[in-house]
Amino acid sequence: PAAEPAAAEPGAAGPWAEVLAPVANAMAGAIRMSGASWEKYWSLVANPGQAFDYARAAASVGLELAHLATLADDAPTRFKGKPGTVKRVAWSAPMPLAEIKALGRSLGCSVNDLLLSSVAGALRGYLAGKGDATEGVEIRAMVPVNLREAADAGGLGNRFGLVEVVLPVGIENPLERLYEVKRRMGQKKKSLQAPVTFGLLSVLGLMPKVVQEQVLDLLARKATAVMTNVPG
């Protein structure tokens, strides 16, 4: 029989341990209840070639939650501020996807690597144009990851997790910036962060409002932007 999921490690998230402990424990229980989907993610993405282990997966949940809780607040650039009521939408000129894919193949990078690196360069240019310092500046973005299987493409409801990526805005050289983005994204691809944040947001809906507000406020302080190519 599978081992019982491990409880969240006390003190792992510092002052947030009391807030995150019930969330982590609820998610650990959910792993046991929905083992099939976790087993698929574990074996195909996070730990290829390794057998699924409930206790180990549950412990990984606790570590990922602790990592999110102990992230430093994002850089205080002019992009940070209180959300207002005015919304603005902007479009760039379209770029042929085939050309982007061809460029990615020639450089050994993915489409996401190219786009995230380009956005980091654009943010750098904007800050520099405003006279702000850019040397060493990094901005954290949340990147949604689609967790819906192809067979369930038409299903209702959201099914995506979030991965935090630190954009190297301070790197001026485009190729150097691109390969740094690729390196950072490569580290995230083997983590459980996407399904853990999906589970976190799902479990939060069952928690008291005070817990919801504290956790959402915590996450909001950790990032400046959301960047996505997930349809919908």
Core attributes:
8 helices, 3 strands, mainly alpha, globular, disordered N terminus, 8% strand, 232 residues, 3-stranded mixed beta sheet, single chain
Description of the molecule:
There is one protein chain. The protein is mainly alpha-helical. The protein has one domain. Helices cover 51% and strands 8% of the residues. It has helices at 17-33, 35-46, 54-70, 97-107, 111-129, 174-189, 193-204, 209-222; strands at residues 139-146, 160-167, 225-226. It has a three-stranded mixed beta sheet. It is globular, with a radius of gyration of 19 Å. Mean pLDDT is 75; it is low at 1-15, 31-36 and 42-46.
**Helix-and-strand structural type:** mainly alpha
Domain unit count = 1
Average pLDDT: 75
Beginning-to-end CA distance, first to last residue: 40 Å
Figure out the total of helices.
Answer: 8
CA radius of gyration is 19 Å
- Tell me the strand percentage band: 5-15%
Using the alpha-carbon principal axes, give the shape. Answer: globular
- How many E-type strands? 3
- Tell me the strand order in the biggest sheet: 2-1-3
**Series of H and E elements:** HHHHHEEHHHE
Helix content: 40-55%
Largest sheet: 3 strands, mixed
Query: Which runs of at least 5 residues are low in confidence (pLDDT < 50)?
Result: 1-15, 31-36, 42-46
